[in-house]
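Task 17 of the worksheet. Students: predict the tertiary structure of the chain below and write it out as structure tokens. Keep your answer in the requested format; marks are given for formatting as well as content.
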Amino acid sequence: MLRLLLSPLRRFRRSERGSLSVEFVLVVPIMLFAYGGLFTFFDAFRVVNLNTRASYTIADMLSREDQTLPTDYIDGMNDVLSVLTRSQYETVLRITVVQYFADDDEVRVVWSQVDGGSGEFIQPITQATFDLIEDEVPVMADSDVNIVVETWSGFVPMLNWTGLEPQYFESVVVTRPRFGPTLCLDSGVDDEELCYAFS
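Model answer:
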């Protein structure tokens, strides 16, 4: 009698019918979380990649300039940055021209301009704040001039639980003028041009 009662229980224990449904219910949420995380990280790498490419493009454009830049040129370059990165958020562009003097073994800031941002967390580089970009500037010959292009592109993750925070991705590119000894900026004051640092 006991054997008759236990045999259905044994059959139920050995049965594998319905196991696919149980596995599906267990695995699908994990897969959805994994896919969501992968899409979020892919989007972050996409923003970094676009910002880096845009920085190189802007640096190349600046290196080919042989005329004095008007005061609104930096604004136009930031518009180019926004288009190249296809950013939904405000982009920030800082261009700094530096010159090296071997006698003093010193790199001096010729001029620096910023467009975009609130003006609080990204400001033009001065001689006092040159240490912010000092590590980016390569070894230079005496009286040599370099153009430092810094760009920031905003990123907000699609999903909050991935560990990524809303942030700005930064890219820095340093280049030399191609067709002239320096890159001049119209200061906007009495047709004064900023071309070289004081020796």
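Marker's comment: The mean pLDDT is 87. The beta strands are 92-101, 106-115, 145-155, 167-175, 185-186, 193-194.
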